[in-house]
């Protein structure tokens, strides 16, 4: 089943989990429930008014996400692959992943699909914010991992970073992770769609997202860094993902 | 005694928001505090060459660097945040400050730590409201240690259309350290510093420099956060400061830590009476102060005679 599951050391450097705990400590900001309440209301309001404030969406995700993170941690630890992630705590950024090398990989490999996605949408893996408000380093890591594989979820589902693509990915993630931020993003984000996209959303994207979210394997529990050379169709088969076909 | 309880109260408050290590430092301070020692205690805990950065004790050079970083990161959002945190009241404090200074057309003002121009623009407005000046020449030198803040101020001046021709006041922008001004002795008739002196590493040196650059008869005026004489009001104010202000920073400016520093540095600043005696120690006479909004802020004034 995992024919092409192979570790490619030269493409990724294993991050030290101790480093992560230290880094988390540096960024951690202690808050009480009163402060969390204002942060929740405030960040939700600001995210709605100005979707470009990515930091507010991140903040909202953290202050409302505790029980979802426990759920995610549990789901990740269900597989051997997931346990490895939780143990090694790998990070995804331009220091740990060589995008130049990924871009040179054969077409149709996971690595190439990811690198192409990043170039096409003109985004960098370094723009993911550090977790600030989660005290437990293990849960903080789950949130950090969620953020860092978000682009990989986009890439492997072939969803662009348009509002339509974003909302669709949020639904898949929301169903799998149960993060309130994702679910709300799916619901309220859809309200910002233009008429043409809204029609496509209701006809194709939403039903597909719900199906994918329910059928696919847990996407935060995939050690993508060890699958760069896996064929994307093989990857889809393994993860129970069916590509969206519009007709 | 009141001070001791306040320090204790503060250390309790910090339980919520501070890491264990810092908390330990705080509680050591409060248990070792004998009531008589009062505000000097914190200083006693520090080794020579150390100072406060908020509630942290850091090396003196480090404070300068850290304060610099804080203002570099907040410069752009500085004015918005002032409005959000004080609910607009800071505008009134600054207006009152300018009324108390009551500049005249021949005033030569040095506005220290005035990067974004809040005081300088009020000064210009005040002079304009006096009516056309008859050939007298007034000027303001806006000094700030941080170029990022000065840039914001320059942009605002441009937007407001303040050129020497249009407003009749000469504006100079200068990046300088309040503790070491490269300005000649006896060269200004007024020196103002609004919400700036708290961030300086050596307050005494700042005051000495202010004294040096002022002409005899010149006036020193300082607007700064202070202590509320009423314990209940101080409690309410503390809750707002520690519980709400950093959250507002996160929401409106995307930054928590600079605003945590802000509220901590306010608590570390000497109270009205202590600051008054520091001003007197620098040589100023006729030193008085006035509380604004129950003592949230105070305006200190002194003359070089």
Radius of gyration of chain B over all CA atoms, rounded: 19 Å
Helix content of chain A: 55-70%
What is the CATH class of the largest domain in chain B?
Answer: Alpha Beta
Mean pLDDT of chain A: 88
- In whole angstroms, the N-to-C terminal distance of chain B is 36 Å
Structural class of chain A: mainly alpha
Task: Compute the number of strand runs of chain A.
Answer: 0
Low-confidence runs of at least 5 consecutive residues of chain B:
1-44
Give the helices and strands of chain A as they follow along the chain.
HHHHHHHHHHHH
| Total domain units of chain A | 1
In percent, how much strand structure appears in the residues of chain B?
15-25%
SSE string of chain B = HHHEEHHHEHEHHEEHEHHHEE
Number of helices of chain B: 13
Report the principal-axis shape of chain A.
globular
- Portion of residues in beta strands of chain A equals under 5%
Main location (chain A): mitochondrion
Organism (chain A): Spodoptera frugiperda
Subcellular location (chain A): Mitochondrion inner membrane
Family (chain A): Belongs to the COQ4 family.
Features:
A: 247 residues, mainly alpha, globular, disordered N terminus, B: 305 residues, alpha/beta, Rossmann fold, two-stranded antiparallel ribbon, zinc (chain A)
Care to describe what's here?
The complex is a heterodimer of chains A (247) and B (305). With 247 residues, chain A is an all-alpha fold. Chain A has one domain. Chain A has 12 helices and no strands. In chain A, helix 1 crosses helix 8 (137-156), helix 4 (66-76) crosses helix 8 (137-156) and helix 9 packs parallel to helix 11. The relative contact order of chain A is 0.16. Mean pLDDT of chain A is 88; it is low at 1-15. With 305 residues, chain B is an alpha/beta fold. Chain B is globular and about 50 Å long. In chain B, the strands form 2 sheets. Chain B has a 7-stranded mixed β-sheet with strand order 5-4-3-6-7-9-8, with helices on both faces. A two-stranded antiparallel ribbon of chain B has the order 1-2. The model of chain B is unreliable at 1-44 (pLDDT under 50). In chain B, helix 1 (2-17) packs antiparallel against helix 2, helix 5 (78-86) packs antiparallel against helix 11 (231-253) and helix 11 (231-253) packs antiparallel against helix 12 (257-268). Chain B folds into 2 domains: 1-45, no CATH class; 76-227 and 270-303, Vaccinia Virus protein VP39 (Rossmann fold, 3-Layer(aba) Sandwich), CATH 3.40.50. Classes of the chains: A mainly alpha (247), B alpha/beta (305). Chain A binds chain B through residues 29-32, 34-35, 38-39, 42-43, 46, 53, 55-56, 59, 132, and chain B through 16-19, 243-244, 246-247, 250-251, 254, 256-257.
